[in-house]
Amino acid sequence: MDASFFALVALVLFFVLLAYLKVPGMMAKALDERADKIRDELAEAKRLREEAQHLLAEYQRKRKEAEAEAAAIVAAAEREAAALTAEAKQKTEEFVARRNALSEQKIKQAETEAVNAVRAAAVDLAIAAAEKVLAKKTDDTVQQALFRASVGEVKSRLN
Question: What HAMAP family does this protein's entry cite (predicted)?
């Protein structure tokens, strides 16, 4: 009996001991559990991927809706700004027209007042000149007669 025989016997005893302790079953069970765990992790990863794709699609839809809403808001703001600009332009034109009319009216009034002032000054000057001329040409008796005639005319008009 040499050493190879004892090595063979030890090997056979080792395999018998392994079979007796059910080591192959435990190894198969551990491998099955690990395979199940990996399978579950793959299923979970697949579910998470599908959920992520669903969320991505939803966010893209919401983004498109938000962009459309923003475009509508911008368009409404532009329309409102255009309307306000047109209204402001119209009001400015009306204001300028009113101011021009008022200025023209004031100018006409000033012209009328200037003409009246010149006429009044001319009348006053003419009266003063007439007084001087009459004063030189008339004496006291003629002046008193004219004064009495004027007073009588005023009395007759007042009654």
Answer: ATP_synth_b_bprime
Residue 104 to residue 98: CA distance in whole angstroms: 10
Packing angle, helices 3-20 and 23-137, rounded to 10: 60
CA-to-CA dists, residue 41 to 33, 37, 49, 74, 103, angstroms: 12, 6, 12, 48, 89
State both tokens at 12: 């056979």
**Contact (CB, 8 A) for 34 and 28:** no
pLDDT in tens, 90-133: 999 999 999 999 999 999 999 999 998 898 888 888 888 887 88
Please tell me the predicted confidence (pLDDT) of residue 52.
Answer: 96
Say what the pTM is.
0.43
